[in-house]
Amino acid sequence: MRAAIVTGGTGALGQAIVRRLLLDGALVTVPYIVDAEHDRLRAAIHQRDRARVTLERADVTDVRVMEALVESVVKCHGGLHILVSAVGGFAGGGLVDTDRETWERMLLLNLTSVFVAARAAVPAMIAGRHGRVIVIASRAVVPPAAGFIAYTAAKAGAVAFTQALAAEVKGAGVTANAVLPSTMDTPANRAAMPDADPSTWVPVDAVAEAVAYLASDAAGHVTGTLLSI
């Protein structure tokens, strides 16, 4: 069985990704911070699949913590084959409306979390000559849009990071790709935009399906790709 780590796996999109990887037979480890996240994911997973999901309390922006998490997965499952970096956060605001705290929080959640997880995971993938790194970015930042400059810069950085990583690990049996969803149909987005029409939004299951493809053996020659949905 393939072993996967899904950061951000307790959110609406993350849950869909976890369920989809389980459908393909993966063993999935999900870091979380607070008990409510743990309980939310456990409730979203069918009872028959819960034995293949490991939840570990871990800060995905902490290098040593993520290195220890990867070491644990490799020890338990004989390797690490899939990393899905789905942690993220959103803040609106143009340049003059964005304070330093918001800027740094967007970078931490949307870019630093990607770097830390990949830095911990990729060496194990190279050692096993097999790996799939999939980063959740955003369609809204290609090209960059106005109105949420910190988020745009962070997600655009995640896109550039993914393409640079793909070039770096070329020939090592490891691929790196980014999925760029448009507005997704999540409870949080429905609450934030009550007057919008969610039927025009992207279902989280569609994004999870794209992740599953990029994680599959069939996508072994797909790398450095930005898959817009």
Task: Give your account of this protein's structure.
The chain is an alpha/beta fold and 229 residues long. It has one domain: Rossmann fold (3-Layer(aba) Sandwich). 45% of the residues lie in helices and 17% in strands. It is built from 7 helices and 9 strands. Helix 4 links the parallel strand 4 (82-85) and strand 5. Helix 1 packs across helix 7, helix 3 runs parallel beside helix 4 and helix 4 (100-128) runs parallel beside helix 5. The chain is globular, with a radius of gyration of 17 Å.
Q: Give the tally of β-strands.
A: 9
Binned, the helix content reads 40-55%
CATH superfamily: NAD(P)-binding Rossmann-like Domain
* Continuous helix count: 7
Give the CATH architecture: 3-Layer(aba) Sandwich
Return the domain count: 1
Cα Rg: 17 Å
The ordered string of helix (H) and strand (E) elements is: EHEHEHEHEHEEHEHE
Range of strand content: 15-25%
Shape: globular
